[in-house]
Amino acid sequence: MQLRACHYDDHSDILTVVDSDRVIYRYNCYEIENSLDMHSAARSRLR
């Protein structure tokens, strides 16, 4: 998958990703944290 855009919304805690085919994926950040062992402090770096 080639990424075209990526945006983190700290109000909804959702990461939105658009790939090169313009398919939109939305991920709940708490699920990413649980699966990738990502610390919540890293969320601000996703903007």
Topology:
Elements: E1 3-9, E2 14-19, E3 24-28, H1 29-36
Antiparallel strand pairs: 1-2, 2-3
Shape: globular
Strand order of the largest sheet: 1-2-3
Measured distance between first and last alpha carbons: 20 Å
Number of domains: 1
Q: Structural class of the helix and strand makeup?
A: alpha+beta
| Residue share in helix | 10-25%
Query: Which band does the percent of strand residues land in?
Result: 35-45%
Contiguous uncertain segments of 5+ residues = none
Topology as a string of helices (H) and strands (E): EEEH
Report on this model:
- This protein has 47 residues and is of the alpha+beta class.
- The protein has one domain (3-46).
- It is built from one helix and three strands; from the N terminus they run E-E-E-H.
- A three-stranded antiparallel beta sheet has the order 1-2-3.
- A hairpin with a 4-residue loop joins strand 2 (14-19) and strand 3.
Which key terms come to mind for this protein?
3 strands; alpha+beta; three-stranded antiparallel sheet; globular; 47 residues; 1 helix
Q: What would a concise description of this structure say?
A:
This protein is an alpha+beta fold and 47 residues long.
